[in-house]
Amino acid sequence: MYQRTIARPVEVVGIGLHKGESVRLRIEPLDDDSGIVFYRSDLGRSIPLSVESVIDTRMATVIGAPDGYISTIEHFLSALYAYGIDNLRVILEGNEMPIMDGSAVSFCLLLDEAGIRKQRQPKRLLRIKKPVEVRDGKKFVRLEPFEGAIFDFTIDFDHPAIGHQHHRFDFTRRRYIEEIARARTFGFARDIQYLQSQNLALGASLDNAIGLDDRQVLNPEGLRYPDEFVRHKILDAMGDMKVAGYNLVGRYLSFAGSHDLNHRLTQALFAESANYEILSLGAARVSHYERCFA
To answer: What is the pLDDT of residue 286?
Structure first.
C-alpha cells in the first residue's frame, strides 16, 4: 500500500456555516510526504494540518492562528479519512470550509470527480499500542489497540427525537459512503436563534443541517437514517482523528464525545511515544486495510 493524492485539481463553491458567505474550495494534488496543507489564498498563508495547528474546538475544529484560521474542517477531513488521502493542498478564499449539505457526501463526490492517484512512497498508518482515554464527567473518548479500524459511539440526549443512540462502524470506504457520509450535522432552533443574534451560524438552514425544536425534527424530508444523529458523531470523530495526519489502526470509543474531547485525545495520544507507532506499509500486504480502501 502506498500514499494517495488526487489525480487532478477540482473546485466547488458553497456557503460558510457561520458567516453565511460564498466560499470557493479548490483541492490540488501534492507530492509524496507533503501531508494535508490548507492555504488561505486571500492571506497568502499556508496552514499544515496537525494536532498542534488546532486553535479552537468549541463549535467546530479550527486550525491556524487568530489572524489567519480555517474553521469547520471536520466534515471534509472525514471524507479524506474515508478515501485514504495522504497528500493534498486545500485552497480557500475565506476562513471556513463550505458546509455543503451538512454531511460529508458532497466532499466524497468531489474526491470522486478528482480521482485518486497512487504515489510512490509507503503509506503510513497510526497504530494504537496502549489505551488512551480523556474524560469530562460521564463523557469520554478513548483509543485502544485493535487490528482494524472501528468507531463505536453512543449518545444520550434528553430529546424525544434523539434519545439514546449507539452505532458501531467497522470502517471501509464503501461502508462509509453507505452508512456514514450522508449523516448531517444537527442543531436546536433555540440555539441557532441565539447564535445568529451573535452573528454566528448565519449560513445555517434546513438545507444544511437537521433542525429540531423541543419535540421533533423540523426538516420536511425527515431523517436519512433512523439514527442519523449518532452516525454524524462518528463522521465528526473520523474527521477529528484525521487531524493527526493518518488513518488509524485501532478502536475509537466514545460516549457523548465532542470536538474538544477528540482534540484532547489526540494530544494525550502523542504525549507518550509508547502509546502509538507509525506503521509504514509499502509493499507489505495488510489485508484488512486493502479491503478498507477497495
So the answer is: 60
DSSP structural state of residue 225? S
% pLDDT > 70, the chain:
96
CA dist 217 to 72, 102, 156, 285, Å? 23, 15, 16, 46
Q: How many CB atoms lie within 10 A of CB 188?
A: 16
Residue 166 falls in the annotated catalytic set: no
| Residue-level pLDDT at 229 | 98
C-alpha cell at 149: 479500524
Q: How far is CA 195 from CA 90, 190, 211, in A?
A: 28, 9, 14
C-alpha cell read off for 220: 420536511
Query: Per the residue annotation, which of 75, 167, 232, 259 is the catalytic one?
Result: 259
What angle do the packed helices 105-114 and 74-83 form, to 10 degrees? 50
- Go through the chain and tell me how many residues it has: 294
What DSSP string runs through 90-144?
EEESSSB-B-TTSSSHHHHHHHHHH-EEEEEEEPEEEEE-S-EEEEETTEEEEEE
